[in-house]
Design brief:
It is a single chain. This protein has 116 residues and is mainly beta. 0% of the residues lie in helices and 53% in strands. The protein contains no helices and 11 strands. Strands 2, 4, 5, 6, 9, 10 and 11 form a 7-stranded mixed beta sheet that branches. It has a 4-stranded antiparallel beta sheet with strand order 1-3-8-7, with no helix packed on it. A hairpin with a 4-residue loop joins strand 7 (66-71) and strand 8 (76-81). The chain is globular, with a radius of gyration of 13 Å. The N and C termini lie far apart (34 Å).
Length: 116
């Protein structure tokens, strides 16, 4: 199970950190990802972090503004978002992807709204 928290309303240029708490599986066996669905667009990948943070990647839109990190002791992954823009508004989803590539978990999504 994945449960996101920390979403909300933030002004343009502001910062927000969303978190995703995992339970029911071996967290450290999974790559952790954040995706988002913004108005009028398909769901897109935002960031990925390796099982022990050995690899990290971001979509170009958020490079330099967003940071993904994880705590394998607490089974939580975070997405720290800075310099937020109105076009970052959307529903953010947490995703766990097994390192062998054969299983995924998804969170229910959390709303992030950036006001102009």
């Amino acid at each position: 199970q994945l449960v996101e928290s920390g979403g909300g309303l933030v002004p343009s240029g502001g910062s927000l950190t969303v978190s995703c708490a995992a339970s029911g599986f071996t967290f450290s066996d999974y790559f952790m990802k954040w995706h988002r669905r913004t108005p009028g667009k398909e769901r897109e990948h935002v960031a990925t972090i390796g099982t022990v943070a050995q690899t990290i990647s971001y979509t170009d839109d958020v490079k330099g503004r967003f940071t993904i990190f994880r705590d394998n002791n607490r089974n939580i992954v975070y997405l720290q978002m800075t310099k937020l823009k109105p076009e970052d508004t959307g529903v953010y989803y947490c995703n766990a992807h097994h390192w062998m590539g054969n299983y995924d978990y998804w969170g229910q999504g959390i709303q992030v709204t950036v006001s102009p």
